[in-house]
Amino acid sequence: MNKPLRRIALFCGLLVLSLLIRDNWLQYVKADSLKTNALNRRVSIERYAQPRGNIIVDGKSVTGSKDTSSSDFKYKRTYTDGPMWAPVTGFASQAFGANQLESLEDGILTGNDDRLFFRNTLDMITGKQKSGGNVVTTLNEAAQKAAWSGLEKQGGKGAVVALDPSTGKILALASYPSYDPSSFAGNSTSTDSKAWQKLQKKYDPDDPMLNRALRETYPPGSTFKVVTASAALENNLYSSADTATDSPLPYIMKGTTTELKNEGNIPCKNATLREALRVSCNSVFGKIGADLGNAKMLAEAKKFGFDAEQFTPVRSSASVFSDNMNSSQTALSSIGQYNTAATPLQMAMVASAVANDGKLMKPYMVDKLQSSNLDTIAQTEPQELSQPLSSKNAQILQSMMETVVEKGTGTKAQISGATVGGKTGTAQHGVDNSENPYAWFLSYAKLADGSSPVAVAVVIEDSSANRDDISGGGLAAPIAKSVMEAVIDSKK
Amino acid sequence: MSSSTNTPAHHTSTIGSIGAPSRRNTELALLLFAVVIPVFAYANVGLAIDGTVPSGLLGYGLGLGLLAGVGHLVVRKFARYADPLLLPLATLLNGLGLVVIWRLDQSPRLQQRAKSLFGAFSPDAPKQLLYSALGIAFFAVIIVFLKDHRILQRYTYISMVVSLVLLVAPVFFPAVNGAKIWISIGGFTIQPGEFAKIIIAIFFSGYLMVKRDALALASRRFMGLYLPRGRDLGPILTVWAMSLLILIFETDLGTSMLFFGMFVVVLYVATERTSWIVFGLLMSGAGAVGVASFEPHVQERVNAWLNPFSPKVMAQSDQIAQSLMSFGSGGTLGTGLGQGNSDLIGFAANSDFIFATFGEELGLAGVMAILLLYGLIVERGVRTALAARDPFGKLLAVGLSSAFAIQVFVVAGGVMGLIPLSGMTMPFVAYGGSSVIANWALIGILIRISDTARRPAPAPAANPDAEMTQVVRP
Fold it and tell me: B401 vs A3: CB contact, 8 Å cut-off?
């Protein structure tokens, strides 16, 4: 009987061995994926076990942590002016996870980041409670307030992005309508879940949780003519703002019998670039696009940041300028119609590159990361993304854009004591242009010393106002103006 | 068995030779560790949760020490030559189980859960300490009154009847959480399967000891296997049918696997015919697939095992997913006792799923250590079988050890997602009176068999030829 007994001993050993192997698989190989599984409540338990670090704007935090007496999640996230800052902060909810900065910088905010390891170990030894670090943003409180109240007053859906042209710092990032992330920061099924559900697109067609400044692309309309103008200058199609262009009127698009019409009866025949931008001639810029061709236009658009997602570090959608278009499609695309679509961030980047003498800086919103005792852990350095146009051409384009504000479609953006350059846009959309157009305005301000502290893009969609009244100059320019003023005032 | 006496002594150290040491002092030293380690663990939990050494520490330490001391004295007096590892191993597991049950008693989440479900929360650790005391008492009774395990052989057929009654009884009681494995008498709920495990082992050993020659010899050879005669298939078919009936009517996969597995093991050891293993595997495979094809409860369990994180399974029960995340979150070294969140499992956190708490708070290192402790118990049991001098003792020891091994495999495998989950409890560590008492009884019987096996043979009668022989001693 002993031979089978030995085999049974071996068999029992194998049973234990298989358990040991399984355990190694579970607790070593799969440990990390199980630990961070979306269904693993420990992730949020740990996230809210201690006061969360804050997101800071202009030295003040726009977030906070509230001590709740709940057994699972000790602290709950709070927000000051939640709807205004939501496009920047995102949300951190005990029940619904986190997004944007709250999610991307979660490691710093919870204090779990590897860069805090040494400090955490020190705290553990000295018996101090672990605490999260802060995320210091580049935003400007006054500019954000101006952008938000402008959008709020206006009432339609829209977005504003303001950049510091010389560094790429994001100064304002507003989206309307917005949501208050505090309304669902907890995990109560009666209040938080209801608030969350009400904000979903299914129940709110306005989609308040969409970050329009970064994630929505709109046809840029006439504001895209700034890109087309720089393509014309860069490719030496025209080398001055004040020489007449070769522009017939009416302009029949090549390969079609369709005329590319202008808005109203404006002097576009052989107009100079300056004049064509001032009155916003579709015929002139459409022809420039067709003359340059798809490839050159696309190359220039790409230099401005089109066709690429931006990581600010919050991701923005990629703006679109199509490839493989025929001549008439390129013409339409060059006046910001057809397939062309841009995020408000993208158009602000266009304005800022022109204002920064042709250099496009990478847009960013996190200035630095701090540990809980305010030591800097990481500092973002400004970074040049590309040079869409030469300094000389940038200055030509600046003077053209300044004419637009001085005596063109953008007069409502004038600021006393500063030179403003801008471009309006009214983009058509919907089947047969049946829907209300999008009103655009992009601009920059220049101070007496020649420095340019701010570039801004504003878009207003679906305005319920009469469509004749919608124009970038009428609706969007005043908001851009108040944002630029706020930045200029805060510099003083 | 003649073969055991022929085996050279160095193969199996527990085989008694004249003048073998009793190893009682080894046992005492090991018991000291088995008591001290859980006491430290207990202090650790208190420090982690409240920051203070728990006030119950002294009581707990004395209680566990007393239990271990009683166990040791009984063994020293009545089973002098017993295996020295079994008692300390069982004590250590029981002690750690008590600590973890106490730790889960401190969980606000579980307290809240109990309050909202039953209106009140009552700690389980004191009850488990009482059950452990009853278990040790039962253990002592077995050691004191069961002078020789061969007495059990007399009750072969009574055992059959009793185990049948125990196995069938839960059918007449309402299902608890989808499995009919409980009976309730006057406020007490008992899991009869735990006791049936031991009693049925007595039946199998007694029955097969008698029938083994018929089953082993009367067979035809076919493709290298000895095929049993048709009528010899009777017993295995009966047990197979029984285990399938358990699976169908009590919807308990674990118990079913345990009994059939134990029977096949004992049958194989008794007949030394590999063909029985092949038959057993084929029959259990066919049975499991057959039942799973029409029994929804079994299908659910299998589905939950294959896709623990699918939304459909999660909506029904997130137990397995929670258990897996518990293990995963523990990682290599664990969170430390009292610092994990294994109480998220909620239901049966301190019984069926207690192993997940070990996983999370002691980590891979701790779980491997615990599994090795179980492995050691099983191997000591099989060694006892090897050392036993009588076939009944061999069969009984191997039956009990393999049942123990299969139970550990089924439970730990279930909570770790290796096999479908079943409603059994981890021996000694899980909360539950039936389980702890039955397992102490199991250890008691193994100790009795090992004592008989290692006890020195009576000195041979004086031989008139002795003068002629020179015994050379080193």
Answer: no
Minimum CA–CA partner of B311 in chain A: A39
Radius of gyration of chain A (CA): 27
Q: Is residue A116 part of a domain?
A: no
The CATH number given to whatever domain includes residue A272 is 3.40.710.10
Q: Write out chain B's pLDDT in tens, 474 residues.
A: 444 444 444 444 444 445 568 889 999 999 999 999 999 999 999 999 888 899 889 999 999 999 999 999 999 999 999 999 999 999 999 999 999 999 999 988 888 888 888 888 889 999 999 999 999 999 999 999 999 999 999 998 899 889 888 888 888 887 776 667 778 777 678 888 889 999 999 999 998 898 888 777 766 666 666 666 766 677 777 878 887 887 777 777 788 888 889 989 998 999 888 888 888 888 888 888 888 888 787 888 888 899 999 888 888 888 899 999 999 999 999 999 998 888 888 888 888 899 999 999 999 999 999 999 999 999 999 999 999 999 999 999 999 999 999 999 999 999 999 998 887 889 999 998 999 999 999 999 999 999 999 888 766 666 655 555 555 666
Which of the residues of A are catalytic? 222
Q: Which value does ipTM take for this structure? A: 0.89
Q: Round to whole Å and give the CA distance between B314 and B308.
A: 7
Rounded to a whole number of angstroms, the distance from the CA of A21 to the nearest CA of chain B is 9
Residue A25 CB contacts under 8 Å (≥ 6 apart), including other chains = none
What are the boundaries of each domain within chain B?
2-150+209-455
- Residues with Cβ within 8 Å of residue B458, at least 6 apart in sequence: none
Give A476 to chain B, closest Cα distance, Å.
46
Whether the CB of A60 is below 8 Å from some CB of chain B: the reply is no
Task: Tell me how many domains chain A contains.
Answer: 1
- d(CA A49, nearest CA chain B) in Å: 12
- Quick one: closest CA in A to B333, which residue? A27
DSSP states of A371-398 as a string? -TT--EEEEPPP-EEE-SS-HHHHHHHH
- CA–CA distances in Å: residue B63 to residues A335, B67, B126: 87, 6, 11
**Contacting residues of B for A47, CB less than 8 Å apart:** none
DSSP readout, B243-281?
HHHHHHHS--HHHHHHHHHHHHHHHHHHH--HHHHHHHH
Chain A environment of B367 (Cβ under 8 Å): 23, 27
Contact A23 B391 (CB under 8 A): no
Regarding beta strands A55-57 and A134-137, do their DSSP bridges make them parallel or antiparallel, or are they unpaired?
A: parallel
Are A139 and A84 in contact, with CB atoms under 8 Å apart? no
Residues from chain A that touch B3, judged by Cβ atoms under 8 A, are 1-2
Is the whole-model pTM more than 0.80?
A: no
Task: Report the half-sphere exposure of A186 (CA within 13 A, side-chain side).
Answer: 15
Looking at the domain assignment, is residue A391 inside a domain?
yes
Distance separating alpha carbons of residues A334 and A219, to the nearest angstrom = 11
- How many Cβ pairs closer than 8 A exist between chain A and B? 142
- The domain in which residue A402 lies consists of 217-366+385-491
DSSP for residue B459:
P
Nearest Cα of chain B lies from the Cα of A181 at a distance, in angstroms, of 27
Q: Is residue A82 part of a domain?
A: no
Q: Which of A12, A24, A42 sits opposite B329 (nearest CB)?
A: A42
Among B325, B357, B426, B446, most A C-beta atoms within 10 A, so best to mutate, is B325
Question: Is residue A371, in this structure, part of any structural domain at all?
Answer: no
Interface test with B, best of A5, A17, A47 (most B CBs within 10 A): A5
